[in-house]
Amino acid sequence: MIKPEKQLTIPTPTAKGPQFKMPVKLKDRRRVTIYLTLLVLAYLTMVTLPTMLPDHLNLKTASLTFLQNIQIMFFHPGLSNTTFVQLIQALLESILLAFLTTLIGSVIAFVLALVSFRQLVPAWVGLAIQSFMALIRAIPNVLWVLIYSVVFGLGANAAVIGLTFHSVAYLTKVYTDSMEELEPDAIETMRAMGLKNGPIIRQALVPNFIPSYLSWTFIRFEINFADAVAVGAAAGAGGIGYQLFMASSFYFNFHEVGVIVYLILVFAILLEIASYHLRKRVMGNQ
Fold this sequence. Notes:
This protein is mainly α. The chain is built from ten helices and no strands. Pfam families: BPD_transp_1.
């Protein structure tokens, strides 16, 4: 019997091309750019800040005065130029201003969000609406109030229109983004079944959009309340903002400023608790 010869296996060398190192990732480049920008801004701040301070400023004395005012505000609050009932009424005026502007803005913004929702309308319609809303959001809320105060005069009318105008632009953006994050399968299935936009909105879009609607609306209500305080004196809208302006800039009474700040903080905490329980109840019922 002839045994087969052993087969010789000659290793074939694999061709190795030139070794290239991977370039810096795009994310790393962005991080380096951000760090360099922050360093440049920090350097410019350190260089220009001493030139902005007046020559007669005593930093130690100013710091001690600031700490004393903070101590008076938070540890020794008191009223002398107004009453607690008047402050409560002023706080309610600011709350009602924020509530009205948020309510009107949320209704208009919901309609505009539906009109700009890409699964319901052509893409160019949504792009046009979102671009216009972005232009409105680019101008600060307080500035819109001042612009309308020139047209309607100082008062609550300019504050209502200005806050509502910016609320519509803000809520339209976040409402549309929340709708885009919903699962598109249900909408596509209902559209394949021949249903029109009305039943799709009622049965598929609105039930899943309610938690996001409540969350963003409450966030906007908090923003409008802060802006209502800010424009209380600037636009002559009154409210707790006017009382704060009088106590701090007219009477220089930091005891009253402390009482007003505590009232605003208490309302902000109550609002956060109420929004949490409402969202929890709505999401729990689904």
